[in-house]
Amino acid sequence: MAKFNPWHDVSRGDNVPQTVTGIIEIPKGSKAKYELDKDSGMLKLDRVLFSAVHYPAAYGFIPKTYCDDNDPLDILVLCSVEIVPMCLVEAKVIGVMQMVDGDEEDDKIIAVAAHDISVNHYNELDDLPPHTLREMQRFFEDYKALEHKSVTVQRFLPREEAYRIIDESIRLYNETFPNGNDHDQVLAKEELKG
């Protein structure tokens, strides 16, 4: 019997890359760093953040995507309510935050909950309240500081660049996992990489 894994078995959405499915791992305001256990498909507690910070938006990933850090593409989803972990959210893409975590590039797609009328009118990063991007940048530059790890936010880019990054992560996923949810294949490839 095949295992169900949200990364490999949930649709990316019907209007990719403009609107994608976000699978939320961490609710806004959390100090807990939850992440998908790639083998079981369950959510696990990776760590409690050392610094006095909390996630500025719901945080998760886009299914059936893959990046150079051996993980699916990350997504931050703005919403007026708390989104619980493992909830699927139709997310309208409005931009991307490019950062370097350690020595690895680590893009974060920025989106709004498509079915939340308090945020779904935002179409571009420039539409957001001015403090929103500063809060995201400050969080990601600070959240590993007490662990003596370096994170640098390089820049925020518009939605067209986010679309390109999403398309590239889909291409890389299709090349890396041509059999989709073959979990033994997934684990073997990750062990080879590192």
Q: What are the SSEs and their pairings?
A:
Elements: H1 6-9, E1 19-26, E2 32-36, E3 43-48, E4 58-61, E5 74-78, E6 88-101, E7 104-105, E8 108-113, H2 130-142, E9 151-158, H3 159-176, H4 183-193
Parallel strand pairs: 5-8
Antiparallel strand pairs: 1-4, 1-6, 2-3, 4-5, 6-7, 6-8, 6-9
Function: Catalyzes the hydrolysis of inorganic pyrophosphate (PPi) forming two phosphate ions.
Binding site for substrate: 33, 47, 59, 143
Main location: cytoplasm
Architecture overview:
There is one protein chain. The chain contains four helices and nine strands; from the N terminus they run H-E-E-E-E-E-E-E-E-H-E-H-H. With 194 residues, it is an alpha+beta fold. The mean pLDDT is 91. The chain has a five-stranded mixed β-barrel with strand order 1-4-5-8-6. The chain has a two-stranded antiparallel sheet with strand order 2-3. It has one domain: Inorganic Pyrophosphatase (Alpha-Beta Complex). The radius of gyration is 16 Å and the shape is globular. The chain has helices at residues 6-9, 130-142, 159-176, 183-193, and strands at residues 19-26, 32-36, 43-48, 58-61, 74-78, 88-101, 104-105, 108-113, 151-158.
List keywords for this structure.
two-stranded antiparallel ribbon, 5-stranded mixed beta barrel, Pyrophosphatase, 194 residues, alpha+beta, 9 strands
**CATH-level-4 superfamily name:** Inorganic pyrophosphatase
Q: Indicate the mean pLDDT.
A: 91
Number of domains: 1
Number of helices: 4
Determine the fraction of residues in helical runs and give it as a percent range: 10-25%
The count of DSSP E runs of length 2 or more, i.e. the number of strands, is: 9
Order of helices and strands: HEEEEEEEEHEHH
